Amino acid sequence: MTLSVLFVCLGNICRSPLAEAAFRQEAGRTGLDVEIDSAGTGDWHLGHAPDVRAQATASRNGLDISTYRARQVSAEDFRRFDHIIALDAKNLADLKAMQPEGSRAALSLLLDHVEGREGQAVADPYYGDEAGFDVTWAEVTAGAEGLARRIGQARG
Ligand code: 4NP
Question: Beta strand pairing status for 34-40 and 3-9?
């Protein structure tokens, strides 16, 4: 059975596309059969490619996210995805507020899957400088590894 994971941040142009890319790479490396996507809670950037700084960060790490397009999270996502992973506490609160009755998706923070970083946020790099995106990359990579390990163990 294919498991499905959706990463959610605010704009879907910085953090969640990088989390999606990092997890695609990690799932490939560890042989996980998983459907992966990302979305934003906000609607400012619908249809836009990732922020150029996020694209450059992915590129420096050997990944191409230029074809990704921003979309907004919907009620249907709570039926479609097994896991919806928020990048920060506000994203998680917004997701909980819109979660439909009886939805199947399990909600968590990305860093809940990293030992010692449970409950912490992946900081928003949008208003900062380029270096902030390297911090984001390190965090989403750690999250992707932890999540892949946990899903792999749960499936035996
Ligand atoms: P993201 O970053 O949530 O990581 O995609 C942001 C992108 C856009 C905005 C804020 C954060 N914005 O205010 O437009």
Answer: parallel
